[in-house]
Amino acid sequence: MNTIKVAQIGCGYWGKNLARNFAELGALAAVVDGNPDTANAFSEQYSVPVRTLDEVLADNTIQAVSLATPAETHAALASRAIKAGKHVYVEKPLSLEIADAEAVIKEAASAERVLMVGHLLQYHPVFLRLREIVESGTLGPLRYIYSNRMSLGKFRVEENVLWSFAPHDFSMILSLAGEEPSTVTAQGAAFVTADLADWATVQFVFPSGVRGHVQASWLHPFKEHRLVVVGEKAMAVFEDSASEWGEKLKIYDHTIDYSGAVPVPRKADAQCIAVAPGEPLKEECRHFLDCAENGRSPRTDGTEGLRVLRALEQAESALQTSLRA
User: Fold this and answer.
1) What rounded mean pLDDT belongs to the chain?
2) How far is CA 59 from the centre of its chain?
């Protein structure tokens, strides 16, 4: 039985989902939100008190905090919580600056506190099965990985589509490649809000020769969340936007016949891979509680968050050059 108690800091667009899951796991101990009406509504719904951040940090019966606040506050709040002796779950990104992220990681290590970054799709049962398939060699050596994360809205004005959408895809691609990219390039455009990219493409080159590609947009006619992994022996597709759970993961055993003067593809029917259903966010919250209770390092720890942040910074630099062109 879980003994870790968590205070949810921020109960807005995403924080409300974290509050629900921690409550369902029996771990929610308090809520903190700048909007009194929001805080009171969650307090009543989950029968937990409304507290201030200072009260939470001073309360020794609360061992952890979950941060779902504006991205620019993540590093400072995580640092305060760690110094107060709390384990910290923080929504992506860990920070907007590499130096700040590195400082928080060092603080967590020194204090022996768990620091976990909310890269949600690393906890999706389908992605976990896909990673097992890749690691087993079923696809053969990887050639390239691409991800599309696109929909119509929700338009942001405080961050571009790269920072809003792409961290999930960066995290998955870096996990599957098993290394950091040696080169990151990007292009994009701002069609809706001046100087704020609502469409972006990012290209990775990895030291092993694996290539990666991410396309993110909130100016797209329909929702498309698709991750494609191409290996020498087979190909896999994680279609998170598929309506049926059983259709979310498919393997294509396509081969190429090199016997003639021109390579000829030999197509195979898609094979649906059975995966037990599960809510990714609940699995993510459960993982955090388990790590905090047992002193384990999270799958998406601070170091993993830093790898994603480094790639994001390189992509952002290239993207801004593209926007000025």
Assistant:
1) 95
2) 29
